[in-house]
């Protein structure tokens, strides 16, 4: 799709998020948010990678993230100056900060300064954050920089985060009480992802109709044991083959840490395809769980106590009444093996999900009118 937005009579909403990160969840969440905005009658334009993050070797349309986003979304040119940003503003009605850890000082703040606080966006533009987050605890900035962050955030028209932990971090450290909303993956119609999966390379070569799928970002021996044992239990009643995917940005290192055979060269479309075609999902990733829930797939989430990803998964699954699907690496796996045999009562889950969808959709819509 063109780097420039398609010319139309619709208003333009600019989305600023971490779609360019080598992370399946970051890419798919940004894609889903763009589809949410389009469903509200806007042309969605994803901001390109901030120039502060660029390196000489980087080319945004190469790699799994860029090839997927540029194919499925409108993306702006790289904005190297305030003048180029002002030019973009002329065509833009709304600025939306996307659904990722954009306020993580370790991940973004050190390099991008106040970019993810919309420092350069004029006050006459609507500014919204949708399911943005800190990635765990507050790690900065402090002093005068922190005061500036608070000042910029108070200029937002609406602020929402993705879970109660991020709400606590923002309230305790910045004195701002945000709304908690659903991950945009859970806000999309399933057909959005089914259409994306049509371009999967895996779909072209796989002969099986379903899979036992694992996506482990941060592998270790305990997680390997759980994945293998889970597959054994599922195999008692199923002949679905196992497919394992690891971290998109560190495939070699992640494969070694997990110590299992893993599929390689996976596109974003492949990750989506395997989840939508799974018989069972085993993962330590919140975005993968979100997609599994959307497609009503049985799953277990493999977490570690007090890890930010586990806190985020617990918040989401607890709100849907299925937090028992979390297996902690500190647990005795044998006590939790029943989860690989126990179905999920999705009729109840979907009712709760629909209620949260309606609330999140209304919150966003109220700022897009």
Question: How is this structure best summarized?
Answer:
The protein has two domains: 11-188, 3-Deoxy-D-manno-octulosonic-acid transferase, N-terminal domain (Rossmann fold, 3-Layer(aba) Sandwich), CATH 3.40.50.11720; 190-353, 3-Layer(aba) Sandwich (Rossmann fold), CATH 3.40.50.
Could you characterize what this model shows?
- It contains 16 helices and twelve strands.
- By secondary structure, it is an alpha/beta fold.
- It folds into two domains: 11-188, 3-Deoxy-D-manno-octulosonic-acid transferase, N-terminal domain (Rossmann fold), CATH 3.40.50; 190-353, Rossmann fold, CATH 3.40.50.
- The strands form two sheets. The chain has a seven-stranded parallel sheet. The chain has a five-stranded parallel sheet with strand order 9-8-10-11-12, with helices on both faces.
- Strand 1 (11-16), helix 1 and strand 2 form a beta-alpha-beta unit.
- Mean pLDDT is 91; it is low at 2-6.
Note the main attributes of this structure.
369 residues; alpha/beta; Rossmann fold; seven-stranded parallel beta sheet; five-stranded parallel beta sheet; 16 helices; disordered N terminus
Strand and helix layout:
Layout: E1 11-16, H1 24-39, E2 42-46, H2 63-72, E3 74-75, H3 82-89, E4 92-97, H4 105-112, E5 126-132, H5 143-153, E6 158-161, H6 164-174, E7 179-180, H7 184-187, H8 190-197, H9 201-205, E8 211-216, H10 221-235, E9 242-246, H11 251-258, H12 268-276, E10 278-283, H13 286-294, E11 299-303, H14 308-319, E12 326-328, H15 333-336, H16 346-368
Parallel strand pairs: 1-2, 1-4, 2-3, 4-5, 5-6, 6-7, 8-9, 8-10, 10-11, 11-12
Helix pairs in contact: 8-12
């Amino acid at each position: 799709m063109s780097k420039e937005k398609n010319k139309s009579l619709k208003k333009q909403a600019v989305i600023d998020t971490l779609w360019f990160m080598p992370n399946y969840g970051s890419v798919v969440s940004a894609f889903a948010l763009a589809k949410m905005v389009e469903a509200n009658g806007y042309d969605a334009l994803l901001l390109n990678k901030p120039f502060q993050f660029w390196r000489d070797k980087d080319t945004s349309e190469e790699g799994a993230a860029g090839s997927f986003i540029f194919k499925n979304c409108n993306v702006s040119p790289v904005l190297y100056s305030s003048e180029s940003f002002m030019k973009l503003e002329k065509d833009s009605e709304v600025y939306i900060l996307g659904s990722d850890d954009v306020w993580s000082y370790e991940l973004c703040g050190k390099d991008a300064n106040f970019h993810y606080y919309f420092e350069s966006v004029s006050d006459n533009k609507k500014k919204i954050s949708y399911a943005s987050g800190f990635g765990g605890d507050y790690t900065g900035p402090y002093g005068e920089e922190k005061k500036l962050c608070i000042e910029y955030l108070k200029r937002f028209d609406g602020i929402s985060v993705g879970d109660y932990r991020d709400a606590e971090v923002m309230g305790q450290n910045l004195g701002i009480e945000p709304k908690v909303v659903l991950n945009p993956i859970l806000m999309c119609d399933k057909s959005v992802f089914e259409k994306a999966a049509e371009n999967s390379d895996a779909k072209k070569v796989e002969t099986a109709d379903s899979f036992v799928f694992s996506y482990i970002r941060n592998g270790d021996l305990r997680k390997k044991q759980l994945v293998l044992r889970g597959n054994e239990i599922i195999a008692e009643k199923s002949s679905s083959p196992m497919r394992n995917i690891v971290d998109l940005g560190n495939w070699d290192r992640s494969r070694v840490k997990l110590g299992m055979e893993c599929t390689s060269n996976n596109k974003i479309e492949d990750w989506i395809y395997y989840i939508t075609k799974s018989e069972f999902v085993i993962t330590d990733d919140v975005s993968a769980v979100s997609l599994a829930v959307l497609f009503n797939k049985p799953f277990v989430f493999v977490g570690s106590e007090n890890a930010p990803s586990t806190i985020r998964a617990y918040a989401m699954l607890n709100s849907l009444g299925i937090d028992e699907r979390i297996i902690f690496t500190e647990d005795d796996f044998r006590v939790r093996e029943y989860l690989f045999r126990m179905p999920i009562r999705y009729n109840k889950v979907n009712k709760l999900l629909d209620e949260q969808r309606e609330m999140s959709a209304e919150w966003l819509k109220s700022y897009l009118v």
